[in-house]
Design goal:
Layout: H1 2-38, E1 47-48, H2 50-57, H3 61-73, E2 77-80, E3 84-87, H4 92-116, H5 119-123, H6 125-129, H7 137-153, H8 158-178, H9 186-204, H10 208-229
Antiparallel strand pairs: 1-3, 2-3
Length: 237
């Protein structure tokens, strides 16, 4: 009886070991594919095939299919009947919707920060607003993303933070495609830092009116800059 129990336990352990790598493979493929889409290594409109992706990542079609399904749910991938998949193009109307969602979600995060976050948590935001040492475009895109994710992460509502993270990360591909030249100009970079610093200062004072106004103006400033730079490669009507 004890031997049977031990044998059953060993079998369960072996099954768990087999499942764990499979799960890790699926997560890794999803994260790598998503990262390439957001960084515009895979540009909007790029057509994809399961077979090609499986060969590229050195995996079977199953984790590729799972990753594509998750990315489809996030509107980063769309299915082309009998043709495979493609990276979802971004229309002008969708850009407007994304900025509208971002303004709503970030405003909600700022309200919760002021109402619920401790002084210690608010003081920690100073580091997120500080300019990066590296002046490369990728570093500045990461800096901007990390600042807004820090606001979301500290808001105290995990669902709100998760929704905000999703919309913020989807802006990366628009910025990579359209605003690289903007991020190479020192004046524009300093403007981002100044606006971030002002938002944090208002939040730390718990001045809700000022913090919300600064956040709204910052999102609108970003929208204006991006729309000025939009090119045909990044946006497919």
């Amino acid at each position: 009886m004890h031997l049977e129990t031990a044998t059953a336990t060993d079998a369960d352990t072996d099954a768990n070991i087999k499942r764990a790598p499979q799960k890790l493979v699926r997560v890794d493929v999803y994260e790598r594919l998503r990262s390439e889409i957001l960084a515009c290594t895979l540009r909007p409109g790029t057509q994809l095939q399961e077979k090609d992706l499986a060969e590229k990542y050195g995996v079977s079609k199953s984790p590729i299919r799972d990753a594509l399904l998750r990315l489809q749910e996030q509107h980063l991938i769309e299915v082309l009947p009998r043709k495979g998949y493609r990276v979802t193009p971004v229309s002008m109307s969708e850009i407007g919707e994304m900025y509208e969602m971002r303004a709503l979600l970030e405003g909600a995060c700022v309200r919760r920060l002021i109402d619920h976050a401790s002084d210690t948590a608010l003081a920690a935001l100073d580091a997120a607003a500080a300019a990066p040492d590296d002046n490369g475009v990728a570093s500045w895109i990461q800096y901007n993303r990390d600042f807004h994710l820090a606001l979301a992460g500290a808001c105290g509502n995990s669902r709100l933070a998760r929704a905000t993270r999703e919309i913020i990360e989807q802006f990366d591909r628009l910025i990579y495609m359209n605003m690289s030249n903007v991020l190479r100009e020192a004046g524009n970079l300093q403007q981002f830092v100044d606006e971030h610093t002002a938002i944090v200062a208002a939040i730390k004072r718990r001045d809700k009116r000022a913090a919300l106004a600064l956040t709204r103006d910052h999102v609108e400033s970003s929208r204006t800059l991006l729309l000025e730079q939009v090119g045909a490669l990044a946006v497919i009507p």
